[in-house]
Amino acid sequence: MYEIIEPDQRFAGKDRGIMLLEEKFLEFHRYSSSHNLPLEAISVGDENKVLCEMHYAANAPRNIYSHTKSFTVTAVGLAIEEGKLSLEDHVAEVFKDKLPSNPDPNLEKIQLKHLLCMSSGFGKALLMNADRRPGVGAPDYEKYMMAQPVPVEPGSAFCYSSADSILAAHMVERAVGKRMGEYLYEKVFKPLDMGWPLWAHDPQGHQNGGGSMYLTSTEMKKLGQLYLAEGNWKGEQIVSRDWVQEVSTPKFTFEPSADLWHVGYGYQFWISPYPGSYRADGAFGQITTILPEKGLVVSIQCPEQGNFDQVKRALHEHFLMEL
Questions:
Q1: Contact in structure between 113 and 222 (CB atoms under 8 Å)
Q2: What sign does the dihedral 296-323-270-141 (CA atoms) show?
Q3: Which residues pair with 53 in a beta bridge?
Q4: What's the CA dihedral at 165, 170, 171, 177 to 10 degrees?
Q5: What are the respective helix, strand and coil percentages of the chain, to the nearest 5?
Q6: d(CA 184, CA 78)
Q7: Do residues 295 and 17 make contact, with C-beta atoms less than 8 angstroms apart?
């Protein structure tokens, strides 16, 4: 069961580039269908509109997991632009009311910029999906994190952890005096006509800055379209061009590995193996890839069951490398 936005009168007079995109899109669709790849949707657009879209399941909002982190860093950029936050703000100073009597000395060195590029120094993945559901860290994530050891020098090593994103989101809330949902609705969701997304909360009512936002593939892709347009949406500058450049600049680069997408990391965006590209990336294949040199955004959604590595390789070999 699927649907596609077929070539029609909207593309009258289209250039060869659009025609080739449609051809490659349909080739990928045929490949993914014939190989029974676990895909729910794929959507391709430029900065203004959807160009091609296919659904293999109901087009309903679904958990986009850590793709949410790229919305969180968007809120950080907005608060910085307003002068309410700084990349150099210290975590221990912001959460001084939650410090234990004997915090780790390295805690005082952690800055917002370290949280954004996953180099806080906590040294292990904390407050991930597998932790939060059983109640690890409850009821107060801030107090829980301030009591953690910091065995690694902040800023020196990459360690992917949802706790870093959660703390960054809480820093935004304290700076702007609003919950993340309210702030992003005002600044991003409403102007991008995304409505109010379902979004998991922690025990104290904070939206989860590290994941658990629910969006359709088309809605999810809008964040990529915003960044493709250097922060501009229909003539309104939502996010500064400088922030778009900042988040998409690698802060860590990784040695080549079997994972063809494990290239590098910026600020809550992963770097992708295509010229100038980067992506918002959630578990099980909730991904929006921004391709500035091609003027395109490609989003996919996948189910929790199935071999996502097959999808990743097929998308790489039969579509993204062909654009």
A1: no
A2: positive
A3: 43
A4: 150
A5: 40, 15, 45
A6: 9
A7: no
3-state secondary structure 179-191: CHHHHHHHHHHCC
Task: Label the pairing between strands 232-233 and 296-301.
Answer: unpaired
Q: What is the pTM of this model?
A: 0.94
Roughly what angle, to the nearest 10 degrees, separates helices 162-176 and 68-81?
30
Q: How far is CA 79 from CA 84, 135, 278, in A?
A: 5, 30, 22
CA distances from 133 to 71, 97, 212 (A): 22, 26, 12
> Is the pLDDT at 149 greater than 50, yes or no?
yes
How far apart (Å, rounded) are the C-alpha atoms in residues 271 and 168? Answer: 20
The closest alpha carbon to 228, from 296, 279, 323, 288, belongs to 296
- As a whole number of angstroms, the distance between CA 119 and CA 153 comes to 9
Sign of the Cα torsion 46, 50, 54, 57 reads: positive
Q: For 156-199, what is each residue's pLDDT tens digit?
A: 999 999 999 999 999 999 999 999 999 999 999 999 999 999 99
Q: Which DSSP state fits 91? A: H
Distances in Å between the Cα of 92 and the Cα atoms of 76, 105, 164, 239, 277 are 18, 10, 13, 27, 34
Strand order in the sheet with 264-265: 50-55, 41-45, 296-301, 286-291, 278-282, 270-271, 264-265, 252-253
Report residue 159: phi and psi, to 5°.
-150, 105
What tokens does 145 get? 């994190």
Q: What is the pLDDT of residues 237-278, one digit of tens each?
A: 999 999 999 999 999 999 999 899 999 999 999 999 999 999
How far from the centroid of its chain's Cα atoms is residue 244's Cα? 13
